[in-house]
Design goal:
Helix content: 40-55%
Strand content: 5-15%
Radius of gyration: 20 Å
Order of helices and strands: HEEHH
Strand order of the largest sheet: 1-2
Structural class: mainly alpha
Number of strands: 2
Number of helices: 3
Shape: flat
Length: 64
């Protein structure tokens, strides 16, 4: 069973705490700034683009 301590252990070293310095108010401010920024996107076109990109893949031909 994995514990929080073992989950943070990666490749022989302890990963830094990703929540250190977290400030929920900063998150609220950032979200308020970007709210509505995607409102002018065509949803169906975006979804089609995502599906096409997944089908085509992003790896170069020389990479397995």
């Amino acid at each position: 069973m994995r514990t929080k301590k073992t989950m943070r252990k990666l490749a022989g070293h302890i990963r830094p705490n990703i929540w250190a310095g977290y400030n929920p108010e900063n998150v609220r401010v950032a979200l308020a700034k970007v709210a509505g920024s995607w409102a002018d996107l065509e949803v169906e076109t975006l979804i089609e683009s995502i599906h096409r990109a997944r089908e085509e893949g992003s790896r170069t031909t020389d990479r397995p």
